[in-house]
Amino acid sequence: MIVFISGQGGSGKTTLVKYFENNPVDNWLFFDFDEGAVEKPDTTDMEKLAVWVKAQRENWLKEVRSEKYAGKNICLFGVGLFPWKVGFPDDVKYAYLSVDQNLRKDRLIDRGDPHLYEAYQKDINDIVKRLDEAGAKKFDNSNRPIDQTAEEIKDWLNKLIKEN
Question: What confidence tens digit (pLDDT) does each residue in 114-129 have?
């Protein structure tokens, strides 16, 4: 099974991957979209970043379906992992991280990426609406400890295994 968990920059994706690396979940492998084979450009140019996202997404789609991961449960956290970009194969489930936008802005400023706040801000309502319509599971990662969000994700992942 493959699970794609998307979220805006500053929503907690990388933090959750690190959490799961330190707190493994039986039968699941966790990956950070940014850590794929395509090197992320060191730029604030959103057009260049969009090209990288597309190339990285294509790389990950090949990787998670490779012989190396055959029969494994994969959870990939990243940007742009939307059903309308990836498709609706039977073995792929979707979720997304929601976060208070003021908190998200603060996180991005703290890590030195304030340009990412404005980048997708105008599209966020449409993106969330489309994710909801596609049946993506929503995880709110606002003002709560990361382990609380991680436990909620872990429970959902284990439920998915039982259902399949």
Answer: 776 666 666 778 888 9
Our count of domains for the chain comes to 1
Exposed, middle or buried by CB within 10 Å (0-12, 13-18, 19+), for 63? middle
Would 66 be classed as within a structural domain?
Answer: yes
**Both structure tokens of 91:** 């073995």
CATH code, domain carrying 143:
3.40.50.300
Backbone conformation region of residue 133, classed left if phi is above 0, alpha if psi is from -120 to 50, else beta: alpha
pTM confidence score: 0.87
Sorted by sequence, the CB contacts under 8 Å of residue 123 that are 6+ apart come out as none
The alpha carbon torsion through 123, 48, 95, 153 (nearest 10 deg) reads -120
pLDDT tens, position by position, 30-78: 999 999 899 888 877 878 888 988 999 999 999 999 999 999 999 999 9
- The rounded distance, in Å, linking the Cα atoms of 109 and 142 is 16
Q: Helix 13-22 and helix 146-163: axis angle, to 10°? A: 70
Side-chain-side CA neighbours of 148 within 13 Å: the count stands at 6
Q: Provide the domain limits for residue 115.
A: 2-157
Q: Are 66 and 109 in contact (CB under 8 A)?
A: no
